[in-house]
Amino acid sequence: MTESLAERAYGALCAAIAEGELTPGQRIGETTFAAQLGISRTPIREALQRLARDGLVTLDARNGAKVAELSLEAIQELYDLREILEGSAARFAALGATANDLQRLNAILIKETEHGDDPAALAKLNKLFHQALCEAANNRYLSSAVATFSTTLLLLGPTTLAAKLRAGESQAEHRAIVEAIGEGDAERAESLMRAHIRRAREIRIAMVLEEGLGISPTSIA
Amino acid sequence: MTESLAERAYGALCAAIAEGELTPGQRIGETTFAAQLGISRTPIREALQRLARDGLVTLDARNGAKVAELSLEAIQELYDLREILEGSAARFAALGATANDLQRLNAILIKETEHGDDPAALAKLNKLFHQALCEAANNRYLSSAVATFSTTLLLLGPTTLAAKLRAGESQAEHRAIVEAIGEGDAERAESLMRAHIRRAREIRIAMVLEEGLGISPTSIA
DNA sequence: TTGTCGACTTTTGTATACATAAATATACTT
DNA sequence: AAGTATATTTATGTATACAAAAGTCGACAA
Questions:
Q1: Is B79 near chain A, with CB under 8 Å?
Q2: Rounded to the nearest 5°, which phi and psi values hold at A49?
């Protein structure tokens, strides 16, 4: 048993939320889930607390955990913050990226062109790109914050559809950002990254509005 | 029992760290603490996990929890991030603060002038100021991030000394920031807040270097 | 004297048992 | 028939018991 049961429970719940098996607003009973996974409540509780920290579930006092609901406002706030954080990450990366960092980023860019027709692979590479860029910024707290709020976005479901529609654009933007970082142009790197996040936000908002039913009436207010 | 034992344990540990009763690097045994507080290990574990999330303790696998040690580098990274986050908060506040928000901020400014000779009160008002400003930015995730990373700074001990030395300056800077927000000048509000954080960072770094022994040899590297 | 092997002790991870509070359903009264 | 009160059930919060793993101390051998 290399990984603790609590971590597995966390992973299972995380995946269930990302896959849409657990829908926002749905209640998660500790006992129920423990039985489903065949383990006791203790690691489940630990997992739920981590999920609450990541914003994926809300812990109503005495009433257990619910999968969090993201209002349209909350989504906007989340993207506002991503723009700030990842924009700053790009700036820092431009100022201090090592040759190694750049190599990693370029390797990801190449793989993106190679897998241009595989939405799932692109989604994974996209995640890797943003992670690698954060690490190039060389600020552990910044990385941690970006990771947390990216996790929160799992609530909105997979981005594979958006990746398919926007694959080319997105990759071009990635390349431009890495280029600016390589040249040490902090101003341009930040500006490009902010624009990149804004584009992603627009697509996301459009998707959410189109679904329409993905958001409960009360959470639109 | 209005607040859970886990919350009380969290508060107790938090306070112990802030007061310096638990020094960085010191190990925290679950059993020991449970005995000290007269409760079982379960709520202790919950509290330790929250503390780990706040960066106040590190959970070495299989080796329990230690009070986190902040290297000089980590402190710099923390202030870099505060500059980004609170600078953005000031910008957003300038763009969207309500009359109510401004009233709250001004009320705090007045109290600061009234308690100019009480370092403890000033430290509390300073915290309130930054909180109120974050809330004026009207972004729940931004507020959450600022709160988290401010908590991490508890590791460095109280700022009352710095408050005493810098009381006048700091208050003047607060006033200038609120003024810019009141005028809706986002650019100036962000710029002033960033400078404010940079000043606080300088003082803090100076304090840490002066203490010298507050940081373990290995963590300076 | 030093190094290594082994038993012991301590600590975390997990399971389970118990108490308390909330939600629900049922029965009784008006 | 409807509303209220009470009992039952179910959920969480906490405690404790148990198991496995890691560190520690000691003994024995070279």
A1: no
A2: -65, -40
Cβ contact, residue pair A140, B88, below 8 Å: no
Distance B27 CA to C10 C1' (A): 14
Whether the CB of B122 is below 8 Å from some CB of chain A: the reply is no
Identify whether the C-beta of residue B130 lies closer than 8 Å to the C-beta of residue B146: yes
Q: Could you tell me if B27 lies within 8 Å of chain A, comparing CB atoms?
A: no
pLDDT digits (tens, 9 = 90+) for B72-112: 999 999 999 999 999 999 999 999 999 999 999 999 999 99
Q: What number of C-beta contacts closer than 8 Å exist between A and B?
A: 57
A103 Cβ within 7 A of any nucleic strand D atom: no
Q: Which of A7-13's residues contact partners 24+ apart within 8 Å by CB, and which partners?
A: A7/A47, A8/A37, A8/A43, A9/A33, A9/A37, A9/A39, A9/A43, A9/A44, A9/A46, A9/A47, A10/A46, A10/A47, A10/A50, A10/A51, A12/A37, A12/A47, A13/A47, A13/A48, A13/A51, A13/A56, A13/A57
Token pair belonging to B203: 């003082």
Q: How many Å apart are B177 CA and C25 C1'?
A: 59
pTM of the model as a whole: 0.90
Tell me which chain A residue has its CA closest to the CA of residue B92: A80
Distance B63 CA to C7 C1' (A): 21
Which of B72, B65, B23, B74 has the alpha carbon at shortest distance from B44? B65
Q: Is A151:A55 a contact under the CB 8 Å cutoff?
A: yes
Listed in sequence order, the residues at least 6 apart from B42 whose beta carbon sits closer than 8 Å to its beta carbon are: A42, B6
Q: Token match 């710099």: residue?
A: B76
Tokens at residue B143, please?
A: 């507020």
CA distance B204 to chain A (A): 18
Tokens representing residue B118 in the block: 């009480």
Coil/strand/helix, residue A67: strand
Neighbours of B28 (CB within 10 A): 20
CB of residue B4 closer than 7 A to nucleic acid strand D?
Answer: yes
- Cα-based angle B77, A74, A48 (whole degrees, multiple of 5): 75
- What are the pLDDT digits (tens) for A77-98? 999 999 999 999 999 999 999 9
Question: How many secondary structure helices (H) and strands (E) does chain B include?
Answer: 10, 3
Within an 8 Å CB–CB cutoff, is residue B194 touching chain A? Answer: no
